[in-house]
Amino acid sequence: MTWLRTALVLGLLGSAVAPADAETVVLRGGSLYASPDAAALPDAVVVMTDGVISAVGKSGDVKLPADARVIDCSGKTIVAGFWNSHVHFTEPVWRNAGTALAAPLTQHMQDMLTRWGFTTVWDLGSDPRDSLPLRQRIAKGEVAGPTILFAGNIFPKGGHPVYIPREVQLPEVATPEEATKWARDWLAIGEDGIKLFTGAFMGDKPVVNMDPSIAKAAVEVAHAQGKPVFAHPQNKVGVETVIASDVDVLAHTTPGERAYTDDQLARFKAHGTALIPTLSLFTTVVLDPNVTNRIIAATVNQLKQFSENGGTVLFGTDVGFTQIYDTTQEVELMHRALSERQVLASLTINPATFFKAAKKGRVETGFDADLVVLDGDPVSDVRNLARVSTTIRAGHVIYQKP
Question: Global pTM?
Answer without folding.
Answer: 0.94
